[in-house]
Amino acid sequence: MAVKTAIMGATGAVGAELLTLLEERNFPVGELRVLASHRSAGKKLKFKGEDITVQELTHDSFEGIDLVLASAGGSISREFAPSAVKAGAIVVDNTSEFRMTEGVPLVVPEVNPEAIKEHKGIIANPNCSTIIMVLPVFPIHKAFGVKRAVISTYQAASGAGAKAMQELLDETRAYLDNKPFERTVIPHPYAFNLFAHNSGMGDNGYCQEETKMVKETQKMFCEPNFRVTATCVRVPVLRAHSESLNLELEKDVSVEEVYEVLKAAEGVEILEDRAANRWPMPLDATSKDPVFVGRVRKDISQANTIEMWITGDQIRKGAALNAIQIAEKLFC
Questions:
Q1: Domain 3-125+319-331 is classified in which CATH homologous superfamily?
Q2: Rounded distance, CA 51 to CA 194, Å?
Q3: Are 68 and 91 within 8 A, CB to CB?
Q4: pLDDT on residue 53
Q5: DSSP class of 80
Q6: Which residues does 99 contact at the CB level (< 8 Å), separation at least 6?
Q7: Catalytic residue selected from 119, 141, 197, 241
Q8: How many other C-beta atoms are found inside a 10 Å radius of the C-beta of residue 88?
Q9: Is residue 197 among the annotated active site residues?
Q10: Chain segment 178-198, per-residue pLDDT in tens
């Protein structure tokens, strides 16, 4: 089946990755429309060796389209996704706009593919940090029962978009050259620095990014009382997020048993060399599909608890790849 496909936000970092992955995975694209703001209209993007002209996104952009891959920001999805659904398309939305909306499936195909069929025109991609986290946590939860998950994230500039990645590069050059720099994307000094995630802070002291990880995990696991807490930190890395996981289990299990589960888990790859003290790094995950896991060990402070270190490409599995995997479940 040739799928008439549109990309909303085609000129952004995730939009570019969507184009790459549609080609790499040989998704059965029929007609392809690349949509962006009026400022980007007329630009040329490459797909399968051919130039495709960026069209201005309007409410009439979706006539005859089967699939919309949306990654242009929550306010844009809020305005235009209903028009796409009205035109007969299925929207896979990579923003936070619909994730917690009742009746909208929130899907990681390795975790809850059965939820896809419940859609009413819109399917939501989870937050990038949540996707990277649940890939190893869900199979461990199925095998042993996770009573509580404590997560610390180390998030790359890519999570704030292509402009943030460029700003990190520019600020780093300015820092090394001892030149002044005026940042416009990231609110704090970023070169050779780190800071608590710069999303909005709630009254309970949790920022939006942390709250997303809690609520989204509970929704996907269909366990509203699943115990998870997160501390999210932005680090001066261009691409690929890392996370430290501390998982309290229902029972005592060996490190070897955990590794066996992870080795069989879809979308997860073990990467480590214990003798060399070598564990997954953001550079390992950049432009790669799997979430890489290593350093599984028992928590020496508490019974029935394991710890591990993971890293995954925020733009790829944390965004574009997950969306296309959902589309593959729908159309392939």
A1: NAD(P)-binding Rossmann-like Domain (3.40.50.720)
A2: 39
A3: yes
A4: 97
A5: H
A6: 106, 124, 125, 126, 127, 212, 215, 216, 219
A7: 241
A8: 13
A9: no
A10: 999 999 999 999 999 999 998
For residue 256, count CB atoms less than 10 angstroms from its CB and return exposed for 0-12, middle for 13-18, buried for 19 or more.
exposed
Q: How far apart are CA 40 and CA 219, in angstroms?
A: 36
What is the tens place of the pLDDT at every residue in 109-125?
999 999 999 999 999 99
Three-state secondary structure call for residue 116: helix
Helices (H) and strands (E) in the chain, counts: 8, 15
Are 306 and 299 a contacting pair, CB within 8 Å?
yes
Flag whether pLDDT at 1 surpasses 90. Answer: no
Answer yes or no: same fold for 3-125+319-331 and 130-314: no
CB atoms within 10 A of CB 49: 6
Which of the residues 119, 128, 197, 232 is marked catalytic?
128
Domain spanning 130-314: which CATH class is it, in words? alpha beta
Domain spans in the chain, listed from the N-terminal domain onward: 3-125+319-331, 130-314
Alpha carbons 242 and 158: distance in angstroms, whole number: 12
Whole-number Cα distances in Å, 176 to 29, 171, 183, 191: 45, 9, 16, 9
- What is the H or E stretch that residue 65 is in? none
Q: Which of 292, 294, 295 is nearest to 318 (CA)?
A: 292
| DSSP H stretches of helix in the chain | 13-24, 74-86, 128-144, 162-176, 208-221, 255-264, 282-285, 321-331
325 near 266, Cβ under 8 Å? no
Starting at the edge strand found earlier in the chain, the sheet holding 90-93 runs 55-56, 29-36, 3-8, 67-70, 90-93, 122-124
Would you put residue 295 in left (φ > 0), alpha (ψ -120 to 50) or beta? Answer: left
- Whether 241 sits among the annotated catalytic residues: the reply is yes
